[in-house]
Design goal:
Belongs to the EXO84 family. With 708 residues, the protein is an alpha+beta fold. It contains 22 helices and ten strands. The N terminus and C terminus are likely disordered.
């Protein structure tokens, strides 16, 4: 039975698989019975596979669409929360202004008709104190109640200084919940005073005793009602930038009382503060000095009265100054860092040439608290815990505002820490796969590109702060140490060949030269950090060559090489030519024979290869290490030839040995000396001594023991 194919068959298959009564086992059993053979089953399997892939793609599209909608919704919620926060501030300010106007009208009416004012006050408060003595007793009673309650709170005596006007307004038990997961955190007791809110945690083993948790000034506190969502109900949120806390009251009545008393206390605090500033801003008559019979004191008194008159000129009743702390809070909440710093600059410019009076000091204290909050937010923006994406330019906004706040040193430190974490993360994310040289290319590209971008951004951000450049140089050196650690771990610790190590070091040097574009030369730093590993690699490879040479010497038969084919002979000629041996043809014979020993030829190729790779790694600190390694390698071969020449009795072999010795002294050693001088830039006396000596080692002619 042929199974249906095409789009119609696919739709029927989809409906069949999506049906509620679908049973996989029965479906497979029925399909096996109805199929005509293996081909039908294969076709059906392909259709199911295609349907599965189509379903997977549809799921991916739906997930991506939902994810985008979720991100957009979260962004809209964030905007809405910010707007609601601003609206709450605006409503609170409008309510305070209306009540202030009403209070001012009542005060004016009381001045016009004192009897009416007395009757209104008596009707409004039947318990109004009848004398100043009773008022003092009431104030003293409220302060005594506050002192008694605070004695039960551990750790708040030093944090809550006593002041004549401070008293307790409201207090009660609350339960704190986590703002993200809505899980119960702890039980607390809140003390609302006329200027601040104290939160204390309940001590489990002591009834009626508490431990200090936090203290929030009412000036920077916002109260938000949380809508009931069973079982989460009777909750309200306190916003203290940059944090927020959620508390649950015992019932709806207590929650309502908390919301009302918090708003009322905040409003009274704002009104009293405004009245105090207005009173202090009014000009005060100068005290009448006592009469003096000294006629010379008149000029001194005039000079002393002038600055006192100037001190009273500072006008802090301007609307933008009165609203400055709240405007700073809004800017910080909306992450408008530039606007906040602009307001601070405007205030500093206004107060720049004004005398420092007591109202100015109090205003400065409030503003300094906002400056600390703004600085903390900017510091958090530059912390490595934040996202490191976006490159160095992503930090420019926070860095520039910190510099404007006079925090250049802190901005420099945080910027460099942020970039160090970014570079380290980028290096860690590199996948170690494939050849070592490929990984080193990626490592150098990532590191030196990041270093170059950081340097350019540093020049842009700190152009006028020359004192920060030394910090950047120190940071660059420490970053280079981190790079060299990753480099050495992959190149030298893994025991790569000397040729691979030389290529990797060459790549690192070439990338390091890119920093010269910005006037930064760290070549000497990378040399100093790599010198130990390169010395170890040279000595290790030198030991390998010496061991291989000794092994070949032990099996030396002093016979000519027979390469068997012209191709092999041509290849050897090319290898010798690449090693710098141009007269190799004079050592070749007929029929693919070479009039040299296999040991000498192998030694020549290995020594020249070692020299070429070592010169790629060369810098002045490695001069003596390279020179001593070459001398040791050459001594092994020359000593063996010298010993064989003394011990050999066969005249033909002795002549062959002399021919090999002549090749070493007259061809190989001059080539080594010339190539070393070309690579280093100066001749080596030790190599000259080896070449000029008829024998490298004077040995007793009667001795038959090798000195190797």
């Amino acid at each position: 039975m042929a199974l249906p194919l095409g789009e119609g068959g696919g739709s029927r298959l989809r409906r069949q698989l999506e049906s509620g009564g679908f049973v996989a086992g029965e479906y497979v059993k029925q399909l096996s019975q109805q199929s005509d053979g293996d081909r039908d089953l294969q076709e059906h399997r392909q259709r199911i596979q295609a349907l599965s892939e189509e379903t997977a793609q549809s799921l991916k599209r739906n997930v991506y669409q939902n994810y985008r909608q979720f991100i957009e919704t979260a962004r809209e919620i964030s905007y809405l929360e910010s707007e609601m926060y601003q609206l709450s501030h605006i409503l609170t300010e409008q309510k305070g202004i209306m009540e202030a106007v009403t209070q001012a009208l009542l005060l004016q009416a009381d001045r016009d008709d004192p009897a009416l004012g007395a009757r209104r006050a008596a009707a409004a408060d039947p318990f109004l104190p009848l004398s100043a003595k009773e008022a003092a007793a009431s104030e003293e009673g409220r302060q005594r109640t506050l002192t008694t309650l605070l004695e039960k709170v551990e750790g708040c005596r030093d944090l809550l200084p006593e002041s004549p006007g401070k008293y307790l307004v409201y207090n009660g038990d609350l339960v704190e919940y986590d703002a993200d997961h809505m899980a119960q955190v702890q039980r607390v007791h809140a003390f609302l005073m006329n200027d601040c809110l104290l939160v204390a945690t309940t001590l489990p083993n002591r009834r009626g005793a508490y431990r200090y948790d936090a203290l929030y000034p009412l000036d920077g506190l916002a109260v938000v009602n949380v809508k009931d969502n069973p079982p989460m109900k009777d909750m309200f949120k306190l916003l203290m930038f940059p944090e927020s806390r959620i508390f649950q009251a015992e019932n709806a009545k207590i929650k309502k009382e908390w919301l009302e008393v918090l708003e009322e206390t905040k409003r009274n605090r704002a009104l009293s503060e405004k009245r105090r500033l207005e009173q202090e801003a009014l000009p005060r008559p100068a005290p009448t000095p006592p009469e003096s019979t000294n006629p010379f004191e008149e000029d001194e008194d005039d000079e002393e009265e002038e600055p006192s008159a100037e001190e009273e000129v500072v006008d802090l009743s301007l609307e933008w100054i009165q609203e400055l702390p709240e405007d700073l809070d809004v800017c910080i909440a909306q992450r408008d860092f530039e606007g906040a710093v602009d307001l601070l600059d405007k205030l500093n410019e206004y107060l720049g040439d004004k005398p420092v009076s007591q109202p100015v000091k109090e205003l400065r204290a409030k503003v300094d608290e906002r400056v600390r909050q703004l600085t903390d937010v900017l510091v958090f923006e530059l912390s490595p815990d934040r996202s490191l994406r976006g490159g160095p330019r992503a930090t420019r906004r926070a860095v520039s505002q910190l510099i404007r706040l006079g925090q250049s040193t802190k901005a420099c430190e945080l910027f460099l820490k942020n970039r160090a974490a970014a570079v380290q993360t980028a290096i860690r994310q590199l996948r170690i796969e494939g050849a070592t040289l490929l990984y080193i290319h990626k490592l150098c590209h990532v590191f030196f590109t990041s270093l170059l971008e950081t340097a350019r951004e540093f020049e842009t951000d700190f152009a006028g702060n020359n004192g920060c450049y030394s910090a950047f140089v120190v940071w660059a050196r420490s970053s280079m140490r981190m790079f060299v650690d990753a480099f050495s771990k992959q190149v030298f610790d893994s025991k790569e060949s000397l040729s691979t190590a030389a290529e990797c070091v060459k790549v690192a040097k070439e990338h390091c030269k890119q920093l010269s574009e910005i006037g930064l030369d760290l070549t000497f730093v990378i040399h100093a950090l790599l010198v130990k590993d390169i010395k170890g690699a040279l000595q290790s490879y030198k030991d390998i060559i010496i061991e291989a040479t000794k092994h070949r010497n032990s099996e030396e038969m002093w016979r000519r090489m027979n390469l068997m084919t012209p191709e092999a002979l041509g290849k050897l000629r090319e290898e010798m030519r690449s090693c710098g041996v141009g007269n190799f043809d004079q050592y070749t014979g007929d029929d693919c024979w070479v009039n040299l020993s296999y040991t000498v030829v192998a030694f020549t190729k290995q020594t020249m290869a070692f020299l070429e790779e070592a010169l790629k790694l060369y810098f002045p600190e490695l001069h003596m290490v390279l020179l001593e390694s070459l001398v040791e390698i050459i001594l092994v071969a020359v000593q063996h030839v010298d010993y064989s020449l003394r011990c050999e009795q066969d005249p033909e072999k002795k002549a062959f040995i002399r021919q090999n010795a002549s090749f070493l002294y007259e061809t190989v050693l001059p080539v080594v000396e010339k190539r070393f001088e070309e690579g280093v830039g100066k001749p080596a006396k030790q190599l000259q001594d080896l070449r000029n000596a008829s024998r490298l080692m004077r040995v007793n002619p009667e001795s038959t023991t090798s000195v190797v």
